[in-house]
Amino acid sequence: MRIMTVVGARPQFIKAATISRVIKESHQSEIKEIIVHTGQHYDENMSKVFFDQLEIPKPEYNLEISGASHGAMTGRMLEAIEVVINKEKPDYLLVYGDTNSTLAGALAAAKLQVPVAHVESGLRSYNMKMPEEINRILTDRISNLLFCPTDEAIKNLKQEGIEEGVFNTGDVMYDAAIFYRNRVDKKSKILTSLNINSSEYLLATCHRAENTDDSMRLESILKALHEISDKINVVLPLHPRTQKLMQKYGLTHLTKNLIIVEPLDYIDMISLEKSAKMILTDSGGVQKESFFYNVPCITMRDETEWVETVKLGWNKVVGANKMAIVDAYESFLSSAPKNKNKKPYGLGDSAEKIVNHILKKFKDK
């Protein structure tokens, strides 16, 4: 059986690592995996280092497509992936999450009658201004196997009339969190290099277009981080695109008290997440990783797909308002969440379940 895996962005590398590991360790005689890297995240810190650290097999194809508008990027990926599919003739095409790479891979496969398997299916923010929401809805509509991380995702698909080929497998990112948790402590020296101590700093990330493309939202977020940094160190790994827009809007002065670092590799990022007193983010993946490591999270968006983290008290969704962000920080200081036993994202065996479902479907044809 031949599976073509299409990835292009940091979160997808992490998710793909879990499934590649299961294929290599348990199903090497049954499955040939062909990895296609679209190039959506292309620089050293956001791409190659993840393949090295996560021990993902080297991609057979690197399409080197990045830096264009959403439409141009997706179109170029679609064209290039179609060529690879015609050459490799996979039995299934596997996509992850909600990026342009996800949609391009799914579209190319669907048009060539190759079954699509979508990992992290069924998530909804119900905000159609988000490019990610459009990508995930369209991908779900054309997927044959839909692997959901939560019961909530299953419900979302059912409301849209999608019930066939739907499975709750748990979240592969939880698999990764468990697998790398102890390895991080041995390999990362990031706290020492930044001269910070565990639980004596906050970790912040900001990269989503809804925040970075809106100068007022970005300014409000940076003002909140600036104010909080008077009380505690704030570490901000700065996405290249966010940095460029901060310079364009004239907001760099608001970061003078922050500990600014370049985008981090997976091991260092997880080390910072695990040891932070609190995390402030607009990233879906970081919200979950915060939950996995029992670190309170403030989500600087107007909604979240990961509603379980909110219901269990570990996540406050506050938007981009400065005072709302600062108030959430102070609220967590006075009343930290206590429930550490719930496991809404599975037991850490999601990748194995996904591979077994694909194999069964293939053998039942």
Kindly list the characteristics that best describe this protein.
365 residues; Rossmann fold; 2 domains; 13 strands
The amount of helix comes to 40-55%
Average pLDDT score: 94
Secondary-structure arrangement, i.e. CATH architecture of the largest domain: 3-Layer(aba) Sandwich
Count of separate structural domains: 2
- Pattern of helices and strands: EHEHEHEHEHEHEHHEHHEHEHEHEHEHH
Strand portion? 5-15%
How would you sum up the major sheet?
7 strands, parallel
pLDDT below 50 for ≥5 consecutive residues: which ranges? none
- Total number of helical segments? 16
Spatial extent as radius of gyration: 20 Å
CATH class of the largest domain: Alpha Beta
CA-to-CA gap between the ends?
12 Å
Pairing-aware structural class of the strands and helices?
Answer: alpha/beta
CATH superfamily of the largest domain: Glycogen Phosphorylase B
Describe the structure concisely for a colleague.
Helix content is 48%, strand content 14%. With 365 residues, the chain is of the alpha/beta class. The strands form two sheets. It has a seven-stranded parallel sheet, with helices on both faces. A six-stranded parallel sheet has the order 10-9-8-11-12-13, sandwiched between helices.
Description of the molecule:
By secondary structure, the chain is α/β, with parallel strands linked by helices. The chain has 2 domains: 2-171 and 346-363, 3-Layer(aba) Sandwich (Rossmann fold), CATH 3.40.50; 186-334, Rossmann fold (3-Layer(aba) Sandwich). The chain contains 16 helices and 13 strands. Helix 5 (131-141) links the parallel strand 5 (116-119) and strand 6 (145-148). Helix 3 crosses helix 4 (100-111) and helix 4 (100-111) packs parallel to helix 5 (131-141). The two termini are 12 Å apart.
